[in-house]
Amino acid sequence: MHTDFPPTPAGPSEAGPSQAAPQLGNAILAAALLLPGLGAVNAVHAEEAPERATLSVKYLSYEESQSSMDRIRVRAPSVALTTPVAGVWSVAASLTADDVSGASPRYHTAVSGASRMSDDRGAGDVAVTRYFPRGSVTVGAAYSTEHDYKSRALSLQGTMSSEDKNTSWSFGVGGSDDAIDPVNLVVAGESRQTVNLMAGVTQVMGPRDLAQLTLTHSRGHGYYSDPYKAFDNRPRQRNQSTLLARWNHHHEDGGGTSRLSYRYYSDNFGIRAHTLGAEYVQPLAQGWRVTPSVRLYTQRAASFYYDPVYDGRLGEPFPPGYVFGTTAFSSADQRLSGFGAVTLGLKVAKQLNRDWSVDLKLEAYQQRGSWRAFGGGSPGLEPLRARGIQLGVTRQW
């Protein structure tokens, strides 16, 4: 029965790597809080150390575009290793290198010009887990760096199961410290600190059903503005809360497993977001496995977001009614707008033998302001499209 939970995006925006870069430190920390291991969450069996070591090498190619303009291209190789130690310990580590290039929007991707950009990002994390008969304790650390942004994170998570092991509780705490030094010298030596808390419960509902509920809350303070966008001035405190519900059901007749998820996100910027996810894992003959997926996302714009329309006095991209010298919060960042998004995916995996497997994952993403549910979206947005291809090879021993 294949019922382990897959990773779920941690941030409020459905945008791709180029849109998520300023949140990299928080994303790494959120992933660390879903340990043990770097990857899928298997909370019910978190008390059991892995029997074999696993080495995975993956390569991601990602591209996004808007109208007739190609925007961002990302090439990202990564390697992850998980190994048991002395029967009651495990060590998990991963390294990722991103080569990012393309057109970076100055103000707003729909109406502004764009400058050429190129950047290299590196990220790594490590986690050590100690297993007990009815629980586990995991300590994790993560680090990421690029030419103008560095992030360091630490996390601690514990799990505890009921005597029959049908119920598992998890608790976690983490902290990150980010350093921001933009090359345009708008600011220098800025920083951001965040504390994350997590609590969750996983329940075996029967021989074919597994349910999980997870609540996370983070409190951060420091520099949240985007130094590369004009008139971008955001609060220096951001509190974020996420409620995630997941349900896996094994279909005995066909041998497949359906995975459903719902996530609600809110923060003090005024963003409210909903995510619905569904995928179906279908094993086939001769070691093949096919997993189609769909994810629907919608978010309300931040309270200080504006569409940079032409102002009769000042012209684009000034906020409507802008007064020189004002310190009011404002941003035309697309990630803070109101929009909806759809992601379609397909993963094909092949178990070559007992030790080797390969997989290929394809994803197509589209974002539009008019797709926002529960209200109108931001009218200044043009459709944003993205596609990703990831190839992976895994070896166990």
TrEMBL record:
InterPro entries membership = DUF3570
- For region Disordered, the annotated ranges are 1-20
Residue ranges with Pro residues bias? 1-10
Question: Origin, by domain of life?
Answer: Bacteria
Q: What is this protein called?
A: DUF3570 domain-containing protein
Q: Provide the species name.
A: Pseudoduganella namucuonensis
